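> tool_call: predict_assembly(chains=two)
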Amino acid sequence: MRVKILIRLKSQILEPQGKVIEQSLNNLGFNEFNNIRQGKLIELDLPDNLSKEEKDQKIDSACKKLLVNDIIEEYEVLG
Amino acid sequence: MSFKSAVITFPGSNCDRDALCYLQDLTKGVVYNIWHEEASLPQVDLVILPGGFSFGDYLRSGAMASKSKIINDVIKHANDDRYLLGICNGFQILTEIGLLEGALIQNKNLKFLGKNCFIKKKFKNNFNLSIKEDQVLQIPVAHNEGNFYCDNETLKSLKDNEQIAFEYCKGEFSNSEENINGSIEAIAGITNKKKNILGMMPHPERAYSDFHPSQDGKLIIESLIT
């Protein structure tokens, strides 16, 4: 099964890339685009025969050990 | 007894050679260069995690290096109350390991900063003993993620335990800034609670030799060996 993990900086942390993207979009006339923040998406394959618990446990563990720094980031498993 | 030290090299480290020369010239003792895949460290007084872009800064600066094989022994070395110094990417690696609190995020102005900067000591520890109160040191920085962040609770604890070693300050250049990268309270370097581990963004190993614009970086090694 394909797994998608969305990682983003916590909302209280400054995300300067989003600010610059917003500025550029505004300059192109997209004035209604506000509060842009950029994150990252990690996609990976896990075996189909894993139970939901096993899958959640493995993803959680990988996020805590490496993929996410919980001082500054939060994550969400999509779909 | 002579002072022994070691520098760890990761793929993408680029200040390891400078750190080796810095230690050789200033300690006059044995200096080992250890590859990150080694399983053990020799018994030394000081280990330096050098600057650079370990593992290409992939995922987050220092994230991959913090899981390297040698890190178990680096943690043991620190738990034995021996000195551990992380410079720039080395500081990022120390926060990723969890040996130092907080995290280093992208500079506030989105610029890679490669220039001389000015710092002064905040609280006393063994790494800055030879530095006078209010003495301004000129030491270069070269980083994109040097903006120190921690939550309010951690900041309070860093202050209460006197763990802030260095802060950025204005210096003799007219364009020098109070806080170059947006760090909370202009923090440039912190220690652990026991104060045997220091992480700092400025590069003291680029400010010690006669051919460097400043020799203020010497004071850190002098503090440790005297």
